[in-house]
């Protein structure tokens, strides 16, 4: 059930039980002699099904220096915040200590006077909130990071201003809104909603759903709910994750406006359905947070999200929209919902990848070349576990998963065709270290915080800058270093320049010729958003040839039928089937 998954998720990070997997650890820790290593590396490239001893899985872990936060206020409407390393946090994950993200300029804009940014927890959290402070410390959080100081300042301003936040992946946006939210909620709701018993009215104080955190996927909702619980544990705030079980409890409680919930974490489809069914209302909702806002107000979710935002009509409503990316179009749309005195906060370069991720592009020639490259990179120890591998469709995720299983990898696959229970289980096993690799679709590109990931592989070239930034942002989180390898083939040529430019702007090395490629046309960009490049199967030539044969056969049968019809004859027995499956790539947008 979700609660156990949540506990694991809330612990964050894919760390290994080193005792349990001691044998494997010894096998991969590089203790073996070199000649043995080399022999096994050859084995894997030959697809032997054995694991190469030379893989340096778990061998390396990022450690970073200490940190401190400095705030510089400029005379104009811009506020600069710098965060340098100085003090180490006491996270309980020994392999992946939390460190501050690198120093980055923070720009605040909006009508004057702009709210001030906070520099430390002491400024934000009154000492009376000892439980909150204890929970933060317990989670290894002893310092306020740049984005958190800025967002707290904006959210806590007494004018109740809306906030738009664009800050890099892994920079701590979740706590940036959860902390001020907890402080603003102040006293817990006076009506208690118990998912198992039904709501019970205590008095006529503040009631309903006081705040909503909306996110695009179930996995992210689980993770954020975990963060909410960690932050608020020991307090009497009522929190709820809207999922099947709690949804049923709400539905049978028949208390639409009466639910006493302080923080509700939900995905758009479920929340919208509950509102439509009259099982939930937003009359009491003061705070609406849209995490991954550009995705939420994009075409896939807009039909559900728009009525939710429009329904946020509390007299003292405050909206906060956050993402690591916010292109001009979505930003213009977002602004239509934000109050005129809204504050815009941008950390670092807008729409840029995290500066702690080193990015590489690798030409692979063909689909077969990509599979070979992956095997070689594994064998060469370039992909220390845990590794996240992105592909562009469900079909391809299943194919690559099969290939890696055949190679003897401890691999899982997560995509929208799997049940939520299956997805939760696989993610949990990955976090626990039982799985070394996860083949995933776009579904897993946003928000998920796997602390131990050092490398992300874009097996299939991402179709938009946003997708690239979010995918590679699963590595190099919270100030730790990481890297991303993006494979490309000739098919990806037209979009190569765009990604090369993104890489260059974040200080990574790119071949000059890539920057001189023609710009992708507007039409192509549009097309890419709608549908990814069509690719040959992952498994190589065999399957493709079989498919080609089938296609030729179909064409021959069709031609023969036409001839017969023309000559007045009867149709061929069995006729041409309308067998689909031409391998059109499907973008996995499932919730
Ligand atoms: N002040 C802090 N001190 C120590 N660790 C922190 C602090 N703030 C956040 N973290 C940790 O940093 C990691 C990244 O934070 P978070 O998931 O909020 O990033 P994000 O900016 O939302 O990224 P994304 O854009 O990918 O969703 C988490 O593991 C979180 O626990």
CATH architecture of the largest domain: 3-Layer(aba) Sandwich
Helix content: 25-40%
* Beta strand count: 18
Which residues form runs of ≥5 with pLDDT under 50? 1-18, 20-95, 198-205, 569-591
Q: Which radius of gyration do the C-alpha atoms yield?
A: 26 Å
3D shape: globular
Distance between the termini: 18 Å
The CATH class of the largest domain, by name, is: Alpha Beta
CATH topology of the largest domain: Rossmann fold
Number of helices: 21
Strand order of the largest sheet: 3-12-4-11-10-7-9-8
Q: Kindly name the structural category.
A: alpha/beta
Mean pLDDT: 78
The major beta sheet can be summarized as: 8 strands, mixed
Bound molecules: adenosine-5'-triphosphate
How many structural domains? 3
Strand % is 15-25%
Q: CATH superfamily of the largest domain, called what?
A: P-loop containing nucleotide triphosphate hydrolases
GO molecular function: ATP binding; hydrolase activity; RNA binding; RNA helicase activity
Region (Disordered): 27-112, 521-591
Biased composition (Acidic residues): 84-96
Domain Helicase ATP-binding: 154-344
Account of the 3D structure:
There is one protein chain. The chain has helices at 2-11, 22-28, 34-45, 121-124, 130-138, 146-156, 173-185, 218-232, 244-253, 268-276, 293-296, 302-310, 328-335, 367-379, 394-406, 420-432, 465-472, 493-505, 512-515, 522-530, 541-566; strands at 68-73, 79-84, 106-109, 163-166, 192-194, 198-200, 209-214, 239-241, 261-266, 287-291, 318-323, 343-347, 357-365, 387-390, 411-414, 437-440, 455-458, 482-489. It has 591 residues and is α/β, with parallel strands linked by helices. The protein has 3 domains: 5-77, no CATH class; 95-347, P-loop containing nucleotide triphosphate hydrolases (Rossmann fold, 3-Layer(aba) Sandwich), CATH 3.40.50.300; 357-530, P-loop containing nucleotide triphosphate hydrolases (Rossmann fold). It has an 8-stranded mixed beta sheet, with helices on both faces. Strand 17, helix 17 (465-472) and strand 18 form a beta-alpha-beta unit. 49% of the residues are buried. Residues 1-18, 20-95, 198-205 and 569-591 have low confidence and may be disordered. The structure holds adenosine-5'-triphosphate. Adenosine-5'-triphosphate is lined by residues 12, 89, 98, 140-141, 143-145, 148, 167, 169-175, 324, 447, 449, 451, 473, 477-478. Residues 12, 89, 98, 140-141, 143-145, 148, 167, 169-175, 324, 447, 449, 451, 473, 477-478 line the site of adenosine-5'-triphosphate. Its EC number is 3.6.4.13. InterPro entries: DEAD/DEAH_box_helicase_dom, DEAD/DEAH_RhlB, DEAD_box_RNA_helicase, Helicase_ATP-bd, Helicase_C-like, P-loop_NTPase, RNA-helicase_DEAD-box_CS. GO terms for molecular function: ATP binding; hydrolase activity; RNA binding; RNA helicase activity. Pfam families: DEAD, Helicase_C. Residues 356-518 form the Helicase C-terminal domain.
């Amino acid at each position: 059930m979700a609660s156990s998954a949540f506990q694991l998720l809330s612990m964050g990070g894919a760390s290994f039980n080193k005792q349990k997997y001691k044998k494997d650890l010894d096998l991969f820790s590089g203790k073996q002699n070199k000649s043995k290593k080399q022999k096994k590396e050859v084995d894997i490239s030959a697809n032997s099904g054995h694991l190469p001893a030379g893989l340096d899985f778990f061998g390396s872990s990022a450690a970073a220096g200490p940190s401190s936060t400095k705030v510089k206020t400029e005379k104009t409407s811009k506020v600069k915040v710098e965060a340098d390393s100085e003090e180490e946090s006491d996270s309980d994950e020994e392999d992946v200590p939390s460190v501050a993200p690198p120093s980055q300029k923070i720009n605040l804009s909006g009508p004057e006077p702009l709210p001030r940014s906070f520099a430390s927890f002491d400024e934000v959290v009154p000492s009376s909130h000892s439980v909150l402070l204890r929970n933060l410390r317990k989670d290894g959080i002893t310092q306020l990071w740049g984005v958190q100081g800025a967002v707290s300042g904006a959210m806590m301003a007494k004018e109740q201003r809306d906030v738009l936040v664009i800050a890099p992946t892994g920079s701590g946006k979740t706590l940036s809104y959860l902390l001020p939210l907890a402080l603003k909620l102040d006293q817990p709701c006076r009506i208690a909603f118990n998912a198992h018993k039904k709501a019970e009215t205590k008095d006529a104080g503040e009631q309903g759903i006081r705040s909503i955190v909306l996110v695009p996927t179930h996995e992210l909702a689980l993770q954020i709910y975990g963060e909410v619980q960690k932050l608020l544990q020991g307090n009497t705030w009522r929190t709820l994750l809207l999922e099947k079980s709690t949804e049923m409890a709400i539905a049978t409680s028949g208390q639409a406006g009466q639910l006493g919930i302080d923080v509700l974490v939900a995905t758009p489809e479920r929340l919208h359905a509950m509102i439509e069914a009259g099982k939930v209302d937003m009359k009491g909702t003061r705070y609406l947070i849209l995490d991954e806002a550009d995705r939420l107000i994009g075409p896939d979710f807009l039909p559900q999200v728009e009525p939710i935002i429009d329904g946020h009509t509390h007299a003292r409503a405050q909206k906060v929209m956050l993402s690591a990316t916010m292109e001009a179009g979505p930003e213009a749309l977002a602004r239509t919902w934000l109050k005129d005195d809204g504050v815009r906060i941008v950390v670092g370069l807008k729409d840029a990848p995290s500066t702690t991720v080193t990015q590489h592009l690798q030409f692979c020639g063909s689909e077969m070349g990509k599979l070979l490259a992956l095997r070689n990179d594994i064998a060469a120890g370039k992909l220390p576990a845990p590794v996240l591998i992105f592909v562009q469709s469900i079909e391809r995720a299943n194919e690559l998963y099969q290939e890696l299983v055949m190679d003897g990898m401890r691999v899982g696959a997560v995509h929208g065709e799997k049940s939520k229970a299956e997805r939760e289980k696989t993610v949990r096993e990955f976090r626990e270290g039982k799985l070394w690799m996860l083949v995933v679709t776009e579904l897993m590109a946003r928000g998920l915080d796997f602390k131990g990931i050092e490398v992300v592989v874009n097996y299939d070239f991402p179709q938009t800058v946003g997708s690239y930034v979010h995918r590679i942002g699963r590595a190099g989180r919270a100030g730790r270093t990481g890297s991303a390898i993006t494979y490309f083939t000739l098919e990806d040529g037209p979009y190569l320049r765009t990604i090369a430019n993104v890489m260059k702007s974040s200080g990574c090395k790119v071949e000059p010729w890539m920057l001189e490629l023609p710009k992708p046309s507007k039409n192509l960009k549009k097309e890419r958003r709608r549908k990814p490049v069509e690719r040959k199967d992952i498994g190589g030539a065999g399957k493709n040839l079989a498919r080609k044969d089938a296609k030729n056969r179909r064409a021959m049968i069709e031609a023969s039928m036409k001839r017969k019809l023309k000559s007045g004859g009867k149709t061929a027995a069995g006729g041409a089937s309308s067998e689909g499956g031409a391998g059109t790539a499907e973008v996995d947008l499932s919730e």
